[in-house]
Design a protein that fits this description.
With about 230 residues, the chain is an alpha+beta fold. It is built from seven helices and seven strands; from the N terminus they run αααββααβαββαββ. It has helices at about 5-25, 35-55, 55-75, 85-105, 110-140, 160-170, 200-215; strands at about 80, 85, 145-155, 175-185, 190-195, 220-225, 230. The strands form two sheets. A five-stranded antiparallel beta sheet has the order 4-5-3-6-7, covered by helices on one side. The protein is elongated.
């Protein structure tokens, strides 16, 4: 394999990995543009190395890539009580490695098909999954409860706090984030979220509030259930 073919395969793996990463970055996931690009690029490089070595190295290194990505994926999975978050991100990293491996083998068209399929899976199946969550939410037993969540912070961390709040609340099927808004108050920003739950989730809301209070430049976090207020 010449240096030109080596470069073409490596750049293909990088570009296809970045395509997946752009979609993940847009969704504000923990593994975004750089992570998916580097995973795909690294897998491509290892496959190219195995081809240079020759023999049965290709099969062995490919298997090592699969197992190695498992450890990387485990790093983005978080457990909060009975809830597990990050499985989708870990699976995407795994797919990025597959794209890189295909690119390294010179199967650029196949790698492009896998990339497109991964992106379509996120774009098409995500709204379907949200609708299914809402259907499950409506069918839950118990009295629905509305929570008003208020966060006072500086303007420079507003976007970070909004994204963090959406990640903490938007991925939990027990909660339905009805609205999220921001207002400028006394040179600070007040972020207000209205959250609906099928059954009371005071402990979950309290854990979310406690987590946000430790964020830098967050001055105040409070939540209330329609007229009854609990403040940190």
């Amino acid at each position: 394999m010449g240096i030109l073919e080596f470069t073409i395969r490596l750049v293909t793996g990088m570009l296809l990995g970045s395509a997946i990463g752009i979609e993940r970055h847009w969704r504000q996931k923990s593994a975004g543009l750089r992570t998916n690009t580097l995973v795909s690029l690294g897998a491509t490089a290892f496959i190219l190395l195995s081809i240079k070595i020759g023999g049965d190295a290709t099969g062995r290194i490919a298997s090592y890539i699969v197992s190695g990505i498992g450890f990387l994926g485990a790093g983005v999975i978080m457990k909060d009580g009975l809830n597990v978050q990050g499985l989708n991100t870990a699976a995407t990293i795994w797919c990025s490695a597959a794209v890189g491996a295909l690119s390294g083998m010179g199967l650029q068209l196949e790698a492009a098909v896998v990339t497109a399929t991964v992106m379509l899976t996120h774009i098409i199946l995500r709204p379907i999954g949200l609708q299914l969550n809402r259907f499950t939410f409506v069918k839950s037993h118990g009295d629905p409860t509305d929570y008003l969540f208020t966060i006072k912070c500086t303007a420079e961390v507003e976007n970070h706090i909004r994204v963090l709040l959406m990640q903490m609340l938007g991925n939990d099927e027990k909660l339905l984030l009805k609205s999220l808004s921001s207002d400028d108050v006394d040179q600070n920003v007040v972020i207000t979220a209205v959250i609906k739950t099928a059954v009371p989730q005071d402990s979950l809301i309290e854990r979310t509030a406690s987590r946000l209070t430790i964020e830098e430049k967050v001055h105040k976090v409070s939540w209330e259930i329609i007229g009854t207020q609990s403040e940190l």
